[in-house]
Amino acid sequence: MAHLHSETIESSKTPPSQFISSKSHTENLIETLPTREGWATPLVLYNNCWIRANSLKDSMAVKDRLKPRPDDTILAAHPKCGTTWLKALLFTIVNRSRYTFTDHPLLTSRPHQVVPYLALRPGDLDIVETLPSPRLLSTHLPLSLLPSTVSTLGCRIVCVCRDPKDAFISRWHFEKRMNQGMSIGMDEAFTMFCEGCSPYGPFWDRYLEYWKESLARPDEVMFLRYEEIVSDTPKVIRKLASFLRVPFTQEEDSNGVVEQVEDLCGFTSLSNIAANRPSRVQHEHAGDKLVVDPTSLFRKGKVGDWVNHMSKDMGDRMDQLVAEKFKGSGLIF
Ligand code: PAP
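Above: inputs. Below: predicted complex with 3'-phosphate-adenosine-5'-diphosphate.
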């Protein structure tokens, strides 16, 4: 099991004194990039992707420093679209011969602890290089910020997206619960989201990028929507197992293993384990402290909750935007 903890990456050598500069090339570049405030932490636009300023350097390092392996599986989930759920499902499916359901890591650890991220914190990349193959990794980054060898080596990718109305509402509640809180109201946050300015946005570019990759590499890239996982979870669990080349045997099927995976990774089960009960989980990003309560990753887990928070007019505006952005792509909500 991967153990996640923050480490600081130290530069390996001190440069000769005449070359000492107080800022690195990356830091100088970051200063030239557009920045926007409003969400719980400032966002910076890099490579057409709004990334939290405090994780930008680590995100930028992924393209150069990650060494993809042909048997890697990468969960490329747009935030608030089912990352936590899919981390649990994928981990449980691929490790089902290793752990029993009564003594399972997900009964004591959060899904985010068992599947590492690329790359939210300094040190994340060092950790993933030490993992044995086959690795199960996760990212919110666009495909274009991953090494191109992810595609050429044929790494498997599982992407997940969600009706942007629900993804926005989930995002809104999450940001409000972060220690920094929000400096703007829902209307302004909605406007920023529709302008593409939300963590890892524009959402349409992220969805489309992975959607196109799934069309180009159908055997290696599986594209899912949160709504389809909710509507028939056992079907998606079977699909994921076949995709990962570990299909359920007839014996497993008749022993109810698919249903056991579903129950262990379900909202009720995961949100009730001690590791996901209220507490303060602190992440350090470049000296910034982000405090996240794990319960904020388990809010409602419903499809269509947006109607309880957004006006009909906002819903219509988002639907219109979605229709415009995805026109002709074959991707519909
Ligand atoms: P992240 O990107 O910050 O990791 P992510 O896990 O993608 O978040 O999304 C959180 C959403 O998934 C929450 O949706 P909501 O705010 O609309 O409720 C959360 O409730 C939902 N979620 C988390 N775990 C599960 C699960 N096991 N089953 C169904 N939904 C879940």
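The pocket of 3'-phosphate-adenosine-5'-diphosphate is lined by residues 77, 79-85, 166, 170, 173, 265-267, 270, 297-301, 305 (CB under 6 Å).
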